[in-house]
Amino acid sequence: MLLCGLAVLATLALIVYELVLRSGPSWHAFGFKFFAGQDWDPVNEHFGALPFVYGTLVSSFLALLIAVPLSIGVAVFTTEMCPPLLRGPLSFFVELLAAIPSVVYGLWAIFVLVPILTNYVGPFLARTLGWTGLFTGPFFGLSMLAAGIILAIMIIPIISSITREVLMVVPQHQREAVLALGATRWEMIRVGVLRNARAGIMGGIILGLGRALGETMAVTMVIGNNPQIVKSLFAPGYTMASALANQFSEATGDVYLSALIEIGLALFLVTIAVNALARLLVWTVTRGQPARANA
Amino acid sequence: MPEAVPTSALHTVPPIALRRRITDHVMTGAAVLTVVLVLVPLFAIFAYLIYRGFGSVDWAFFTQTPRPVGEAGGGMANAIVGSIIILGMASLIGVPVGIGAGIYLAEYGRNRFGDAIRFTADVLNGVPSIVIGIVAYAVVVLSEKHFSAFAGAVALAIMMIPTITRTTEEMLLLVPQALREAAYGLGIPRWRTTLSITLRTATSGVITGVMLAFARVAGETAPLLFTTLGNQYWSFSTDANHHLRLGLDQPTAALPLQIYSYALSPYDDWHRQAWAGALVLIILIVTAIAAVRFAVRRGTFGAA
Description:
The complex is a heterodimer of chains A (295) and B (304). By secondary structure, chain A is an all-alpha fold. Chain A has one domain: MetI-like (MetI-like fold, Orthogonal Bundle), CATH 1.10.3720.10. Chain A has 11 helices and 2 strands. Chain A is globular and about 70 Å long. Chain A starts with a helix and ends in a 9-residue tail after the last helix. With 304 residues, chain B is an all-alpha fold. Chain B has 2 domains: 14-54; 57-297, Orthogonal Bundle (MetI-like fold), CATH 1.10.3720.10. Chain B has helices at 4-11, 15-56, 59-63, 77-108, 112-126, 129-144, 149-174, 177-185, 190-201, 203-218, 255-263, 268-297; strands at residues 237-238, 244-245. A two-stranded antiparallel ribbon of chain B has the order 1-2. Chain B starts with a helix and ends in a 7-residue tail after the last helix.
């Protein structure tokens, strides 16, 4: 049994060891400039990962922007407003969203979501919000926007199930106390429930972010895979994870391979930091500790 | 008439209260709207999957291997078998290790070291699957010098372990302490108690964890991309002496990989087969999850 426990530790150690070891050549060649450089040129073996970092961050934050209000709304509805009969099926359906494999999301996005975006949503956004500069230029569907939307659909179940969990541990007499002061239901939810649970909700959001950062297949299938930094969300982009998915098995040359592994190492470190933070936040709430004002 | 003012004021709603009530209704409406907005893509995905999938699944899909490019027909028989082989091997590696680690945490892990393992398992759970693919590539593929089903199984096993470990621990902790003490009282050694009494009592709970882990990795594509690589043919073959070679050390087709490459192809018939593959994959996963929910609902798990 101890051996199995050690195996868990050893696995993580192995991951760190392999990533650090094999990203060495790239680290020696480019140093910190690796994450500041903009040109990704396998032929001349010159690598800068900034476009991938940019793509990962923008697509993930776009996903959060869409997913956070929706997930909190669903969680609030299922815990506070929903008739008990609906509660079970509703949470089951949202869980089902989490069970769909990434590649199936990608398949659906290519054949259903992208055509809808190009034919209806894209022109509408260009007309109404074109002045922001975020929705300009030619739009062929495979874009940062499509990636953000499919990521949002994928992280909604995570954020909403954790939010639900956190809302359910808010003590019932909190709600009763606020209601007794003459609050309406929404005021009760805002003052009595959401305010008490905000550290945990934040944890859920960050956990969703962690998932979005590392998500590979669905994003690779719809983001367009073009390493560039452009303001418009209509333009194709590239993420760290999709760079690995597309280029890893055909990477020729040690520096190319190790540059890709260095991207993997960066992705690994970021997701670990994000996940640790999220677990800490969820833990402070569900362990029954009072969420302090500055917690 | 100044006297009339107080009586009518009693019956009219003060403006602030009205605003508060409107806010209440608006926010309730907004919550319902979010539920609708979340359910729409869910139904859209399932409806489209069933519509395209059932229209595409045919006998050939389960019995034939892919045809050459541009030729219609064929199926994903090799990918289905490949997926079964890879998932089977992954379970053979991941399940014992995961359960073992879970037992260690529940029975011996009430200390710093146990906390370290618990934290590590949670960290492993959050590692992006593509990164685990890189590690399996570096460890297995580079040392064996070729892509193989085994390398993919290693990657999937690493992904299964944390889920199994944590659920096993939780389920074992549900077993009442009195049951263990009764066993000790009969003079049964600790290891024997753990295996025959505690683990036995929690069997269905542990199986729940295994199924969840299985469902989680069954659709994984990213860690297979550069470990099993994919294959248009059967991975097993017969050698000169007509002995069957399983080809576990060969590049192997897998259902998610096949869906991925067919989805990105320009051929309609391959798109059709990608949908069929997605439907088969989803049915597999949803069945596993429904079985888990059914077991939990019946309360047969753990000592609860």
